[in-house]
Design brief:
It is found in: Cell membrane. InterPro entries: ABC_transporter_permease (IPR051393), MetI-like (IPR000515), MetI-like_sf (IPR035906). This is Sugar ABC transporter permease. The protein is mainly α and about 325 residues long. It contains 14 helices and no strands. It folds into 2 domains: about 80 residues, no CATH class; about 240 residues, MetI-like fold, CATH 1.10.3720.10.
Length: about 325
């Protein structure tokens, strides 16, 4: 009985000692290593923001702020009304201008031709990835036009597509007759877009090849084992596996068509014939550089931005939906 009492006293004393020790630890100030760990975790959380800050500031200062200023300027007048708020008058002028309406129709045409502009580098990248004979040579040849200046490309094709040029001479030899590639309003825009696709698909080709580097080769092996044809392999294996890459190429190609064809249009057609090759960016340059109407040009630039935003978001939505269905 005495022994039991002694053990109880010892247990109580031990519990009291542990409680005192825990209270002492709780009241003890935070040590230097603990403070360093807290500082380290806070620094780790802030590090990505610090690295992103320069890029965000550059984009905000050189892209977003000028965009806001341009949108604001589009609601002011030109000439005698310079600096005065005119509301939506510039936008009403745009939609009453046949040249701007022609530019909008050409934007719709570009959207319709976009799948072709993406499919061409996609198919060529597929052939290179499958290592068709001469694929190393083709890789360099296909990319070569991308390093040429649009002015040089336009000058070359002005000679090739002239009414008395070599292409019409070839067609004449085949009995097909000459085509006024750059003088026919129904043909000129297709000629300019075709030259643009030829001159720029090398960059999309590089992006597709980078996407193929992430493709699981076992899927291709399984398709070959199951006896799938090349079109079936492309549609059921390659396209679903490269859905992200295809989305990126679609958006960047569309942006390139809307914002990078000024050089070709200026050199090849100057917006003609009859305004049939006008695009929004060329219209902006005409209003700003030749007509001295910066407010109207700002309104056209704002419309171009909205067009790219809507078309880009629509493309991403459609491609994502198609990817989920696959």
């Amino acid at each position: 009985m005495a022994a039991h009492s002694v053990s109880s006293v010892d247990s109580a004393a031990a519990g009291s000692t542990e409680g005192s020790a825990s209270r002492a630890r709780a009241s003890r100030p935070v040590t230097a290593p603990a403070r360093r760990n807290r500082r380290g975790s806070r620094a780790e959380r802030l590090a990505p923001l610090v690295f992103l800050a320069p890029a965000v500031l550059i984009i905000a200062g050189l892209r977003l702020w000028p965009l806001v200023l341009g949108i604001n300027f589009s609601f002011t007048g030109d000439g005698a009304l310079n600096g005065l708020v005119v509301g939506f008058a510039n936008y009403l002028t745009l939609f009453g201008d046949p040249l701007f309406l022609s530019a909008l129709r050409n934007v719709g045409l570009l959207v319709l031709l976009l799948p072709v502009a993406v499919a061409i580098p996609g198919l060529l990248a597929t052939f290179i990835f499958l290592k068709v004979p001469g694929h190393r040579l083709y890789r360099g040849v296909y990319f070569f036009p991308a390093v040429l200046s649009p002015v040089i490309v336009g000058a070359i094709f002005n000679l090739l597509l002239a009414f008395d040029g070599p292409l019409n001479a070839l067609l004449g030899g085949l009995g097909l007759g000459p085509v006024d590639w750059l003088g026919d309003p129904d043909v000129a825009i297709f000629a300019v877009v075709g030259v643009h696709v030829w001159a720029t698909f090398g960059m999309a080709l590089v992006v597709f090849l980078a996407g193929f580097a992430t493709l699981d080769s076992s899927l291709l092996d399984a398709a070959r084992t199951d006896g799938a044809s090349l079109p079936q392999t492309i549609w059921h294996v390659v396209v679903p596996s490269l859905s992200r890459t295809i989305q990126f190429v679609f958006v960047t190609t569309m942006i390139g068509m809307l914002t990078s064809m000024f050089g070709l249009v200026y050199v090849m057609t100057s917006g003609g014939p009859e305004g049939s090759t006008y695009l929004p960016e060329y219209y902006v340059w005409i209003q700003q550089g030749q007509m001295n109407q910066p407010a109207l040009a700002s309104a056209a630039s704002t419309m171009l931005f909205l067009i790219m935003l809507v078309v880009g978001l629509a493309q991403i939505g459609v491609l994502r939906r198609a990817g989920k269905e696959d």
